Amino acid sequence: MEAGKVSAGKPLQPNHGNKLSSGLPGSLVPHSTRKGKDKKLLNTPSPLSLFKAPIRSKATCQSKSHIVFLKTHKTASSTILNILYRYGESRNLTFALPLNKHSQLFYPFSFASHFVEGVSSRSVREFHIMCNHMRFRKSEVAKVMPADTFYFSILRHPVAMMESIFIYYKSIQAFHKTHSLDDFLDNGSQNYNSSVTNNHYAHNILSFDFGFDNNIRAGAEDLEERASMSIAAIERDFQLILISEYFDESMVLLKHALCWSLDDVVSFKLNSRSERTRHPLSPNTAEKIKGWNALDWKIYLHFNTTFWHKVDSLVGREQMKREVSQLRELQTKLASTCLKDGGAVDPSQIKDAALKPFQYGAAVIQGYNLNPHIDTQTKTKCQRLITPELQYTDLLYTQQFPELAAKHRQANRMAALQHQRIDRTGALGKVWVRESHHRQFIRHKLPNLKNQKASTSALLTHTAAGNRTKMP
């Protein structure tokens, strides 16, 4: 890294040692600090027993299956969504999926219970997991989910998150005319209009996702009061807040909180950018981001501290080190079993279109290729680990609502046919207009021909046949 540069959003350090070394390839250490270059793993199939490694934190604890995950933006939340999808699907749990096969719960509108498929129709008796993007509103979520639901979410350092958002959402009005992130930050008051659709991505996006007013910056008289109120609301509504910079530690903490196994929280990094689309930020830029996203910064500082308090009270530092090591060992073994070449690749290199992640903005979102030398049962489990969010959501919707999914497929086919008819009609119309202009041109150029109509007809016939006669 160049002198005078810092990585976007350098993680805060807890009071005790938490920098755990990793023997994993960089692509499989989702968001912990990495050292060294990625190493390819051999495509040596491992036993299916790798998927069956239950390690419970307490012999008496009861696994939780009523869960709400507030999926925040650019925080490794797609990886957590995949964990929840796999857990729920393997146990035949019911997801609170978006209405009409949408991929999000009508974000950025504040959540309403009728956004969930099966609520208005009362076709679902019990929902277990809600985890798609939404703008949080507890009173409406509580109408859908049982009273004993476990609520959790994840935060990311606002500096790193802002760098990612600027690349991913470069097309929004607040960003698209700016040449760089510094350019935007230096002219934020001119570039940012909160009333413009999707501009919320550019300002205190974490606060917005949690349902708060995001239009505040450093120096505001009520910043401290609003930050305190926001933090209090999060602590009231959520039992656990994870930190993206310590992803593996977060997964171990989540495992203990839910009384799950390490196998339940193992993952591969999903919806992640290629390194070539990441840009280091100067310390000056980082400070400007903290000022612009001052509310997010204060929320992050608070929960970065409480995260380590949770580790101490729920797991303990030494136990955390042991379980993170076990989790990374399991990830490494799964990578050697599941992945061709052992790591993530650019979308152009992904062989199976069903495993290719959605590409948006200026980011290059990577994915994976399956190891071809695995048995059918193992292949299915490996495939779920690397299935992108949109494809997995579609799969679960089809499983839960097969009749509605069939109607959507039929509607899509009819819409495609209609577009084809429109395209054909449009093409015929263009031919008619072109020929009409052609006739007018000929009449204008050949006014003295006695049999102008016949000549025009003959010339059109020759032109359509592709003769070599040049126009006068």
Most strands sheet: 4 strands, parallel
Mean pLDDT: 83
Principal-axis shape: globular
**How are the strands ordered across the major sheet?**
2-1-3-4
Radius of gyration: 28 Å
Tally of DSSP β-strands: 4
**Helices and strands, in N-to-C order?**
EHEHEHHHHHEHHHHHHHHH
Tally of contiguous helical segments: 16
Helical/strand content category: mainly alpha
Kindly estimate the percentage of residues that lie in beta strands according to DSSP: under 5%
Question: Any descriptors?
Answer:
472 residues; mainly alpha; 4-stranded parallel sheet; globular; disordered C terminus
Outline:
The protein has about 475 residues and is mainly alpha-helical. It has 16 helices and 4 strands. The chain is globular.
List the helices and strands and how they pair.
Blueprint: E1 67-70, H1 77-90, E2 129-130, H2 138-144, E3 150-155, H3 158-168, H4 181-186, H5 188-191, H6 205-209, H7 223-237, E4 240-243, H8 247-258, H9 262-265, H10 283-292, H11 294-315, H12 317-338, H13 376-386, H14 389-400, H15 402-445, H16 452-464
Parallel strand pairs: 1-2, 1-3, 3-4
GO molecular function, one term: galactosylceramide sulfotransferase activity
Keywords: Glycoprotein, Golgi apparatus, Membrane, Signal-anchor, Transferase, Transmembrane, Transmembrane helix
Family: Belongs to the galactose-3-O-sulfotransferase family.
